[in-house]
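[agent] plan:
  1. take the single chain provided in the ticket
  2. run structure prediction with default settings
  3. attach structure tokens to the ticket
  4. add a short note for the reviewer (M.T.)
[agent] executing step 1
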Amino acid sequence: MKSAILLSAVIPSALGATIYLAGDSTMAKGGTGSGTAGWGEYVTPYTSLTVSNQAVAGRSARSYTREGRFDAIAAVVQSGDWVIIEFGHNDGGSLTPTDNGRTDCSGTGSETCSTTYDGVAETVLTFPAYVENATKVFKAKGANVIISSQTPNNPWETGTFTYAPSRFVGYAQVAAAAAGVPYVDHGAYVADQFQTLGLTAVDAYFPLDHTHTSPTGASVVAQAFFKAVVCGDVALKSSLTTTSFPGSCL
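[agent] step 2 finished; step 3 output follows
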């Protein structure tokens, strides 16, 4: 039943290539509520391709995998489609003494951890392993994959600009290199824009907490992603309706 529900939510385009978005609440439709929105809802204005936002709040690379959500995309993805993978906000923490079902095994390679989640024994992989495994499946079907670093928390939260990328930013780069697909440092490009926009403007983008943006903030975050795509000369740029986005190439 779970697989049927997931598959019904993924509708491939009959008109051409589709961009599938796989991520957490910072990308998802509706964000976490309370005036927030995920940046995946602001991709459509900048591309001629169909966009299928399959991001889900509260998910990590591990839980997205365990719930069959990568598999659901793989079941419908077609040659020439794009899949953008961006996780990190929910992947930290510890497996002990209580496993929240989201935490990945420590490491950057083939390390594994054993746990029991929700009464079921589970072998937990590293963050790069989950992302690489999904990427290999998509590539085998002829799809293009971009692995993107997580968006930053409000870097103006203390009143002084500070951007300190989490370890999952580096892990995303490791995964992209291992899988042989483009890496987009989304976090760095968002941080660069947030620094330019300043304290007052950026604080207003975070109406709920320091992680989830308002619709206006989400639009800025989406444009920062495409700025990184253009600057990185990623092939997706040929499907953009414009290559003019705020900011400089990093």
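[agent] step 4 note for reviewer: The two ends are 45 Å apart (CA to CA).
[agent] ticket updated
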